[in-house]
Amino acid sequence: MKKSRIFLLIAILFMLIVFYVVYDMSTKTKFRKFGSDTEENKSVKDSVKQKDPMEVEIRR
After folding, report:
1. Count of domains forming the chain
2. What does the pLDDT read at residue 36?
3. Which stretches of sequence are listed as region Disordered (predicted)?
4. DSSP states of 1-60
């Protein structure tokens, strides 16, 4: 009986720690906005993107 209480206490403590870590990670995560900003997010300062796809600039 005493072993099951200890196991239950450790299991509850473990679950509380897991829930805290998940909550902390979720508050620090920023989700991308979908819609008109999507095209801007794809081409953020992309040095490879050219106006003409056949034109290639070689930088040394």
Report:
1. 1
2. 55
3. 37-60
4. -HHHHHHHHHHHHHHHHHHHHHHHHHHH--PPPPSTTHHHHHTTT-SS--SSTT------
